[in-house]
């Protein structure tokens, strides 16, 4: 289905269609599904071949014994490997990210696992930016070392010389196989200068004789406000649970990049059973249709909320919103790499944990919950939840203190969100 080029139209004459337009029909032929305007949910575990020869060819392609036709990942075999619903959203997500193809997985951590297990081997070294999402920190720092995969890190993604020094030092431990960054980082919104990282990798390639694979978790900004593959990053990774899903009603992940780069990731997904089910894939195809307008509206509201926090009359707050971080290097990278701020950010109060909890308890519109990017606004205390598994000394080093509170701004009216915060601040601190 997704291989029908009549339904992969990206231009009208010389006019290139925007991703928002292609989300409505790209990769889907209604005439193959009784004329249904929207794709049905293909609830099947297996797919019939027209001939046994066709089945043999499909398996040869899936196993890598034979190349797939241009623009294809091969025929439909079994829903652990592929199915129409997942192929549709892989095609459409690639349009937003600006990548050649995508591989969708059953969760964001499933996507990260597929990347790491596809490319890392015992005695390799992975270098990470810091901080990362708590689950990513755990798999890199605690899980991978059990398989003799060594780890290293850098703390300032805006410092090119510091990144180079970190990668050179990591090379003394073994072969640096991968650099995994999160930009912006959760929950501090710190950035990694992707152009600088690429220059560093160029140097490492000349010195070591191989180029480490670059991976960026693009969940907080992308794919609307940042696309990292067109900026030279090998692999973009997403938790589709967040903005792409957008309604806090599904769990999924994705990997974007070139067809060659993603071939081992796709094989790992099939081997480990990490593919996404048809119904959740269908839900994501629904969500992709409104992704741009949801993220743009939430970003607009987020800026207004951040402005109120920065000037609130009750308690000084350090606002970690991209538009409000007062650092010239940060702003230069932000304006070069991103087209907007998205709507997840933190603010930091000089208060103990009990006061932070009291503030959260005094909110009524914001729901106290983990995750982000849904239609409803959420508030989270990362040091006691999402990053509680990270060692306390590392949390302190990353700035994830007891006074740091993360907000995910949803689709409520911003005036109401500000009124909720005003009431909570007044009840807590006045």
Q: What would you say this structure looks like, in words?
A:
The mean pLDDT is 94. The termini are far apart. The strands form three sheets. A seven-stranded mixed sheet has the order 3-9-8-7-6-4-5, sandwiched between helices. Strands 10-11-14-13-12 form a five-stranded mixed sheet, with helices on one face. The chain has a two-stranded antiparallel sheet with strand order 1-2. The chain is built from 14 helices and 14 strands. It is of the alpha/beta class. The chain folds into two domains: 84-285, Aspartate Aminotransferase, domain 2 (3-Layer(aba) Sandwich), CATH 3.40.640.10; 290-429, Aspartate Aminotransferase, domain 1, CATH 3.90.1150.10. Helix 5 links the parallel strand 4 (124-129) and strand 5 (150-154).
In short:
It is built from 14 helices and 14 strands. It has 430 residues and is α/β, with parallel strands linked by helices.
Backbone shape: globular
Strand residue percentage: 5-15%
Instruction: Name the strands of the widest sheet in spatial order.
Output: 3-9-8-7-6-4-5
CATH architecture of the largest domain: 3-Layer(aba) Sandwich
Mean pLDDT: 94
GO molecular function: methionine gamma-lyase activity; pyridoxal phosphate binding
Pfam family, one: Cys_Met_Meta_PP
Keywords: Lyase, Pyridoxal phosphate
GO biological process, one term: transsulfuration
């Amino acid at each position: 289905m997704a291989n029908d080029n009549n339904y992969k139209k990206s231009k009208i004459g010389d006019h290139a269609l925007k991703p928002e337009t292609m989300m409505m029909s790209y990769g889907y032929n209604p005439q193959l599904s009784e004329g249904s305007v929207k794709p049905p949910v293909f609830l099947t575990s297996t797919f019939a071949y027209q001939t046994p020869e066709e089945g043999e060819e499909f398996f040869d392609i899936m196993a890598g014994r034979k190349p797939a036709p241009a623009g294809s990942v091969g025929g439909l075999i079994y829903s652990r490997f592929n199915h129409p619903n997942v192929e549709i959203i892989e095609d459409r997500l690639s349009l937003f990210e600006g990548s050649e193809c995508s591989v969708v997985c059953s969760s964001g951590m499933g996507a990260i696992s597929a990347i790491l297990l596809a490319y890392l081997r015992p005695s390799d070294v992975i270098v990470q930016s810091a901080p990362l999402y708590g689950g990513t920190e755990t798999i890199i720092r605690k899980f991978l070392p059990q398989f003799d995969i060594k780890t290293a890190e850098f703390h300032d993604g805006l410092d090119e010389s510091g990144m180079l020094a970190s990668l050179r030092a990591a090379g003394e431990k073994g072969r640096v196989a991968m650099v995994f960054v999160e930009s912006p980082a959760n929950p501090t919104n710190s950035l990694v200068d992707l152009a600088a990282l690429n220059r560093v990798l160029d140097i490492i390639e000349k010195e070591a004789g191989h180029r480490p694979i670059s991976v960026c978790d693009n969940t907080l900004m992308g794919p609307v406000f940042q696309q990292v593959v067109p900026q030279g990053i090998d692999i973009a990774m997403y938790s589709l649970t967040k903005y792409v899903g957008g309604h806090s009603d599904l769990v999924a992940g994705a990997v974007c990049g070139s067809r060659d780069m993603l071939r081992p990731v796709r094989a790992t997904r099939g081997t480990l059973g990490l593919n996404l089910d048809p119904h959740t894939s269908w839900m994501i195809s629904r969500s992709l249709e409104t992704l741009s307008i949801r993220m743009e509206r939430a970003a607009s509201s987020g800026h207004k909320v951040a402005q109120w926090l920065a000037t609130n009359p009750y308690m000084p707050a350090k606002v970690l919103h991209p538009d409000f971080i007062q650092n010239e290097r940060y702003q230069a990278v932000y304006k070069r790499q991103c087209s907007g701020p998205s709507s997840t950010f933190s603010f930091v109060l000089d208060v103990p944990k009990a006061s932070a909890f009291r503030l959260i308890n005094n909110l009524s519109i914001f729901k106290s919950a983990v995750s982000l990017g849904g239609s409803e606004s959420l508030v989270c205390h990362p040091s006691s939840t999402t990053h509680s598994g990270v060692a306390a000394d590392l949390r302190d080093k990353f700035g994830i203190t007891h006074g740091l509170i993360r907000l995910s701004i949803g689709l409520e009216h911003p005036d109401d969100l500000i009124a909720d915060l005003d009431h909570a601040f007044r009840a807590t601190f006045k």
